[in-house]
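Checklist before submission:
- one chain only
- standard amino acids only
- sequence pasted in full

Submission:
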Amino acid sequence: MTKKEYEAKRNALMTDAKNFLKDQKVAEANAKMDEVKQLDKDYQEFTTAQANATALEGAPALNTVPAPVAPVMAATGSVSTEEDPTNSKAYRKAFMNFVLHGKEMPKDLGAAVTSTTEGGAVIPQTIVDRIIEKLQASGMILPRVTQTAYKGGVSIPVSLVKPVGEWVAEGSDATGKKLDAKTTGMITFSYYKLKVKVAITLEMSEMAISAFETMITNNVSEAITIALENAIINGTGSGQPKGILTETPADGQALTTEGAAPAYADLVACEAALPLAYESGAVWCMSKKAFMAFIGMVDTNKQPIARVNYGINGAPERTLLGRAVICNDYMTYAAGKVMGFMFRFADYILNTNMTITIKTYVDDSTDDQITKAVMLVDGKAVDVNSLVTLTLKAAG
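Returned file contents:
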């Protein structure tokens, strides 16, 4: 069934239901609306199966894949603790020799993963768990987005049907008003390959397993954090996740400063543009230089609008008009550019299977052992109504 056929059939059924209601034929109207529900369900199952088939057709075939080694990360960031063969001492030792000395992984460990373009080994789950914990702890943006582990190519509904409340007199029953159907959108995650490279100097090639795993965790997590957070903000959506700044804000939510520098009135205008429904959870995101442009600004009562508090861990906590500010290195403070934006990061979905494979090679010019980590990632904003951008007025 094509989308056009589905829409035509659905519209016809809804027209019949409305006509029955006009004639006070409630039972017949309910029957037609039940048909609409079944049609919606059938069409969703069809499109999901179609997307899965397309994704599987384009996915690279694997030669040998071990029993599930990918820790599944739920929205809370928790990681499964099931026993995994890659956590064995033998596997971890073999993996270290593979990375440091280029020794082939033993076939009896079932560790090699190869395709037409990539060859390598799956990182032991114990290291992946530590990398994930490091990502959650060190990232400024990653802990705020919603993380999922859906299979690539699967269509996921992003909004649900909401009920309608109805006032009734005492002793009376409701009029049987049906649920108010809100348009249900679908998003499909793709297979985008994130590749990061870290160098291991020749002098570090001899180390204990614990030191090696710490080194891998620190290097890979730092590179992945930077790549993922930059994509969340600036990603083009072509061959990589779609960034927040590549989305189009709702009407009236793309603002420009009145002058060549931001002013108190610009902040007030941004706060006014943020819908009340997204008031909770929305934060400012800007470069440190942009935040410093606000730091000396005061309101009409001579109170500073930008505040920096220091918690017990000594880390600065920045706010503008009471709203938290996330400073980052992924945005620029320049004329004609978005200098800052407000957004509720929970409305951004980052989808990854959290399986990381490793490939190594030697850079002959430096004698460094280059470790290349590869993972499949996609992400996009499922609701952009909380997005309010502030662009620095262009010169001239």
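Reviewer check: The chain has seven helices and 16 strands.
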